[in-house]
Amino acid sequence: MILDSIVLDNFGAYCGRQEAILTPEPDKPIILFGGMNGGGKTTLLDAIQLAFYGPKARISNRGKLGYKEYLSESIHRASDPTEGAGITLRFRRITDGETRNFELQRYWRKGNKGIEESVRVLRDGLPDDIFTSHWDETIEAYLPSSIAHLFFFDGEQIKDLAEGRHAAEIIGTAVHSLLGLDLVDRLETDLKVFERRKRGEGVDAETAKKLTQTRLELEEIDREYEKAAMEEGTLVNEAGRLGKALQAKEELFRSEGGDLYLRRKELESELEDTRKSKTAVESSFRELVAGPLPLLMVEHLLGDVEQLVRHESDIRKARVLIDVLESRDESVVTALKAANFELQSIQAVETILQEDRTARTGLANEPILLDADDSLAPHLSHLCATVLPAAKQQAQEFVAKLGQLDEHITHLESELVRVPTAERIADIQNDLDVARHSHQSKMIELEAVRVRKQALERQRVVVDSRLDKLGESDIDVRFAEDDKQRILKHSLRVRETLEMFRITVVKRHAANMESLMLESFRKLLRKKELVSGLTVNPVTFEATLTGADHKLLPFERLSAGERQLLATSLLWGLARASGRPVPTIIDTPLGRLDSSHRRHLVDRYFPFASHQVLLLSTDEEIVGKYHDALKPFITRTYLLEHNENAKNTHIREGYFQS
User: Fold this and answer.
1) How far is CA 657 from CA 13, 35, 367, 623, in A?
2) Are 338 and 279 in contact (CB under 8 A)?
């Protein structure tokens, strides 16, 4: 199927007749729509689904409105309700081996008896009464409404699927429709109704009364559940709107310095502590300066003093030695003379001794300047080798620490300067508190509705079981007809067989679906080492990932972006498994992804999601580099211009300005 154009007549925010050409060019599958929030993007997606499915369409803002009430509300407020609104969808698809052009027209107006709706189908330009009369069966046979969400979806659906909400339900519904198991479900339901009717035949008045009361109770539970489901849908939409408003208020609060305002006391306390730390370091530094640290300025002179002290010690020793040597030399010469040595020999010895004393006398005659104690030299050596290096290292550490503290003090002072005044931030903070309270209140309401739904589900199980037991007990006690027993037993066996058949069919086809979903995930993520397998439980339809180590990989281990890519790949894989050549339409496709994961979708998904892809983007999604990356695959672009004062939207060619 290829969508060629869509025409909106006074539908929703679209005033008058608005048309967009959707035919893609070869190798350019993307038609890109740009619009601000509330500008009509979701309305465009709703229009396509409404044209196809009518009352069965999954429409975002319908809530708990009845179908005709919704049609009445969707007529543009500035137009005449008696003229009504309409949607025309032109598309083509291959039928019986030939390409056929279709024009689907769905119009409605306010008449004397309320909303009057008409559907008309043209084939190859001519009215086709058969297609018109049986359009609901035709579209359900080609693209069942139960799997339309595989091809037409928005960011909220991806978010819900990524967070695990209704994931098994979405996969189960799609698998059932793709494999035709919805027929099996209807047959099983019909068998249950048949069994209850059969059990109720011929029962006594008391049992019949209980059966009737129980059935009425069951119907009441179903009505309450449906009402709760519709209320849940409305609350989800309202909570989403309030959530977006809260995000906007939080962003404004941050941009105006609200975070700094809230941290003001913390910053002041931290600044005071940092200044105290600086004072303590400076005090320790002063103690160090009062000690040996200044001697570093004359460290080279201390070595000279040490050498001089040692040299003067040698001088003193030389002077003592000279006196000893003179006395010894006189004794030696006297002894030689007394021994009658030759005079020449005595003179030679005397000369040698004289020269030795003369050599030693030079050192002894040097002046003593310091006249310091000999213990001064080792003290100076210890000071230069140990004390002063340690003091220098400690001083460097003090200087570095003071630098860090000064830098931190400067940073804190600049942060405090940026703190807005209480008067400036008060109104913004009050608006933020109101928005947060509104959102929290709505979320509490939503949770209460969901709790009520769960309670109704449990209550329905109990009543359903009681209904079965009433029939079974009455059969066991009252009925003796073998034929009836045989029919009921065979019906039960058929239901058991259907359950086995359902599981078997799912198992037989699950491998292909799992393979396509895993392949899609790997294409988007390009981390082949992250996931080695993906399986779907054939009974509960819960998806399970296997990591590279072949162990279970919980979804919680994935990042938020990876979970959203996984949700997208699940829908993509199921859509591919359907084998239906249907366009893909995505509303706000990048709204909840960070920049890195946005690039994955832009490069690896949007150009290949289908042969025709309609993207409905805000001014913060497919813009800049993302628009440049998609440009080779874009056939045409449209801008949804919304006039807030006139409350209308017009479609024109073009896109957001760079």
Assistant:
1) 23, 12, 94, 9
2) no
- Torsions phi, psi of 602, nearest 5? -65, -40
Q: Which residues pair with residue 544 across a beta bridge?
A: 535
Measured CA to CA, the distance from residue 354 to residue 332 in angstroms comes to: 12
CB crowding 326-348: b at 16 or more within 10 Å, else e: eeebeeebeebeeeeeeeeebee
Q: Describe the chain by its helix, strand, coil percentages, rounded to 5.
A: 65, 15, 20
The residue assigned the tokens 């999604």 is 621
SS3 93: strand
Q: Please name the helix (run of DSSP H) or strand (run of DSSP E) that holds residue 71, with its range, or none.
A: helix 67-73
pLDDT digits (tens, 9 = 90+) for 163-196: 665 667 777 777 766 666 667 777 777 777 777 7
Contacts of 653 (CB under 8 A, 6+ apart): 636, 637, 638, 639
Alpha helices in 339-421 (DSSP H): 343-364, 376-382, 388-418
- Enter the tokens of residue 575: 């859509």
**Count of Cβ atoms closer than 10 Å to residue 70 Cβ:** 19
What is the rounded CA–CA span in Å between residue 324 and residue 356? 13
How many other CB atoms are there within 10 angstroms of residue 652's CB atom? 10
Neighbours of 251 (CB within 10 A): 11
Domain edges within the chain: 205-257+421-478, 289-398
Cα 569 from Cα 577, distance rounded (Å): 12
Is beta strand 613-617 parallel, antiparallel or unpaired with respect to 584-587?
A: parallel
The Cα–Cα gap between 261 and 422 comes to 8
- List own/partner pairs for 279-287 with CB under 8 A and 24 or more apart: 281/398, 281/401, 281/402, 281/405, 282/402, 284/398, 285/395, 285/398, 285/402
Length of the chain: 658
List Cα–Cα distances, 646 to 15, 18, 516, 582, 642, in angstroms. Answer: 10, 16, 47, 36, 9
pLDDT tens track for 405-449: 888 888 887 777 767 766 767 777 788 888 888 889 988 998 999
User: Do 612 and 31 form a contact (C-beta atoms < 8 A)?
Assistant: yes
As a whole number of Å, the end-to-end CA separation of the chain is 33
Question: What is the reported pTM?
Answer: 0.55
Query: Which residue, among 132, 30, 38, 114, has the nearest Cα to 70 in the 3D structure?
Result: 114
SS3 638: strand
pLDDT, position 396: 84
CA dihedral 66, 48, 40, 32 (to 10 degrees): 160
Query: Is there a contact between 614 and 31 (Cβ–Cβ < 8 Å)?
Result: yes
Residue 544's closest CA among 514, 573, 505, 523?
A: 514
Dihedrals phi, psi of 560, to nearest 5 degrees: -60, -40
Give residue for tokens 């073998």: 482
Q: pLDDT (tens digit, 9 = 90+) per residue, 105-144?
A: 999 999 988 999 999 999 999 999 999 999 999 998 888 8
d(CA 324, CA 357): 10
Q: What is the pLDDT of residues 459-484, one digit of tens each?
A: 988 888 887 777 665 555 454 456 66
Structure tokens at 334: 């006297």
| Cα dihedral: 229, 235, 239, 245 (round 10) | 140
Token pair, residue 332, equals 């030696």
Q: The domain 205-257+421-478: what is its CATH number?
A: 1.10.287
